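Because discrete structure vocabularies remain unfamiliar, we reproduce here a specimen of the format, pairing a chain with its fold in token form:
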Amino acid sequence: VHARSRLGLLVRSAESAQLTSLPIILKGIMHPDDAARAMDAGVDGVWVSNHGGRQIDQSVPTLAALPAVVERVAGAVPVVFDSGIRGGADAFVALALGASAVAIGRPYAYGLGIAGETGVREVVRNHIAELDITLGLSGHTSIAEVGKDALRRA
């Protein structure tokens, strides 16, 4: 099951660009056609996310949707990914599949709930440390070196 964008939402996103000088990144892209439509509407980036759609049986995993969206975007705009990032190793996989950036979802909220600002700092610090370790153990020294060849099928 793919969630499909409605063109009206994309048009409103493009019209929003007239209201702000900030970049507009459209969240909820799960299909390459929607990424293309978003770019046609003038967004500054796309965000691969199912908005917590993990509750829907048989929904397309966001990680499975990411490569096709990245291919369709072809570097024209950044691709942000946010689903299932629980640590640096998860970020490594998303970056290897072509995400321009990854966002931390629930873990920062857990840190906030447990220890406030200090908890959020600790979560972010741990994510960065794990990403650094994963880079080193995979034989890489920078994120720029990471591509699909850094992964293997299980």
